[in-house]
Amino acid sequence: MIRKAVVYHVKREHIEEYKRRHAPAPAEVLAVIKRHGVTNYSIFLHEATGTLFGYFEAESDEELARIGDYKVSRDWWKSNAEILVCDPDNPDKGKEEELQEVFHLD
What we know:
106 residues, 4 helices
């Protein structure tokens, strides 16, 4: 099992839309995420800056990569790219910056 943390940013004028889209997220998207071993998934929002912090646990990096094999996943990413800050080299998905774990306590 691996732990992952990422930071990404919602455009401030779309914060309410981001929250609406995730309350709840589409069942088909959640099913794909779960099918590939993702558990304990949370996203936190710092409204003043539009910063999103995501944390989840997964079986492996290989299983995580397979989530992108599904059209429903790619469509979800692309629809959310409209309201997220994206990398110019990949405008179809919000820019995620993976965080390095420096401390953990069980």
